[in-house]
Fold each of these.
Amino acid sequence: RPQPITVLGLGAMGAALVRSWLSAGHPVTVWNRTPARADPLADAGATVASTAAEAVAASPLVIACLLDDASVDETLTTTDLAGRDLVNITTSTPAEARARATWAEKRGARYLDGGIMAVPPMIGVEGSGAYVFYSGDRHLFEERREALTVPAGATFVGEDAGFAALHDVALLSAMNGMFAGVAHAFALVRREDIRPSEFAPLLSGWLVAMSQSAGKVAEQLESDDYTKGVVSNLAMQVAGSATLLRTAEEQGVSAELIAPYLALMERRLAEGHPDEDTTGVVELLIRR
Ligand code: NDP
């Protein structure tokens, strides 16, 4: 029998989660700071609680999908968490997630943190690729897995409550780098007689092919050998990067998005690693 679930936070993401659990037959109790946002969900079958405390008392499984850690704090301080399973899928930093886990456990709750790898339209859609990173209480995860996997897939990444946030933010950070590259590429071709819609599939295809490089970086990091399987060595890549900068100059495009990465490669080369891959940049980034 589908278990009752409470959802705190009915923003774009919270509302999408509620709809998918309702569709799967779960009794859902909802609460939102601005009450009007609950109206469409009440029409869809959710029970609306008038306070967060009332919502938390309604179900053993409580999902928090709020703006940030501060809003989680504000919402939960007035609630009794004893005996609850708190699943907090609000985006936070790893340290915030760890502190929230300790905070919740002190209040008698089991705690699971989550990082959502999806946008709201992907939630509850079979085959959309949506999933959530989870970390923290493994037993909670196992026991609630069936309900948790209704809106999106679930990937458990460890008992350290901060790991879901860390994985989430690592992937989002890589995505930002990709978006920066995409912006630079479009800027380069923008003033020419090249249609963005014809250029886009070439760009996507190239990025998909190059994304395989993550596997090689992993292999080199794990073997502590950054020359392993090198195809394009650092000396060659640094020489090539001068061409990237000159082309930006020629096209009247600022190199501010790509310059920092190229500068790091140059620094690693200057430290005497011509035969390596670009993996040595990882070391330069880690502050000692
Ligand atoms: P929205 O901005 O749509 O909603 C924010 C929610 O937080 C609202 O319910 C809002 O209530 C509530 N809120 C904000 N501040 C407070 C507070 N001080 N006290 C109580 N409630 C508060 O955000 P989303 O639903 O899109 O996102 C929710 C979480 O999901 C975020 O952590 C986000 O990073 C994450 N996420 C979102 C994705 C997306 O594409 N949307 C993708 C992946 C993760 P009110 O209605 O009263 O303002």
Note: The pocket of NDP is lined by residues 9-14, 32-34, 37, 65-67, 71, 74-75, 90-91, 116, 119-120 (CB under 6 Å).
Amino acid sequence: MLSESSGTTGRSRLAVVPARHAFGAEIEDLDLRTIDDDDFSSIYRAWLHHSVLLFRGQILTDDDLIAFSEKFGELDWAPVQESGRRFVEGHPEIYVVSNVIKNGEPIGSLGAGEAAWHTDMSYLPDPPKASILYALEVPPAGGNTYFCNMYRAYELLPEELKRRTERLMLKHDGTYNSGGYVRQGVTAADNLITSRGAFHPLVCTHAETKRRVLYLGRRRNAYIDGLSLPDSESLLDQLWSYATREEFAWHNEWRVGDLVLWDNRCTMHRRDPFDETARRIMHRTQIKGENAPQRMNGAPDRRRKDKLKKVCLIAVQH
Ligand code: OGA
Ligand code: MN
């Protein structure tokens, strides 16, 4: 266990229990409704250090979840649900991830199938910097969520691959969500060149830790700008093989009351499928990104600006 001093007020220590490779950590015995400023700065430091934090045993209303989330920055309004419904009545910040059907319509998104590896909303010019997922109902088995460490992915790359990727731009597709559902207002398409999305550098510098990350977003319809399709596919397959190695992943087997907070700039996540007759209800918030993902030396990229203009036009509302 790693203890963090939380200053002179409030509780004197925060119990931070790191997982393997210090990627992912659980913060024990903390009621997120009652944290003070010192607790929050310890949480923030632990979050930057471990990238994913788990808090168990929480009892939060949507207002409590929003109040905790807002400590990290301004919140996005939730994306449109697969059903076309905009958000939870009275709480535009809450996105529902659920397979539960009510009055013939799903109350949330992603169903009960697998959700493929992804970074939340990296198909936008300014993706959210963090997401928070809170478990209200969980199935007896399955539906576990896995996270991978994109700092580690970059570090694992052989030098030659690092050099090859550091100047490249990647298109992050915005046609499908991680469950394979077509996003609202978009037509299904699998043309890697013309499908909609945002371009980001393949290797980015994290805005706060200043560490390098491999920024892959999602695999489907991904395309490396300027390469032939076969070259782009083969380089992406190679890069993905470093990113999603089981031995460096962290996962959560959900219990009711679990809250998981992740840094969306340096992680990807995926979800196991579960029995569709079981119920799973999660509420999610997302914290606005303060910057577009930055190229590793921080220099702006002209090609990217031109392309961003185009994608901004089609990215509104998503
Ligand atoms: C998400 C997500 C996976 C899950 O909320 O962004 O990908 O485990 N959820 O529900
Ligand atoms: Mn997600």
Note: The pocket of N-oxalylglycine (ligand 1) is lined by residues 97, 110, 115, 120, 131, 133, 145, 178, 269, 271, 282, 284 (CB under 6 Å).
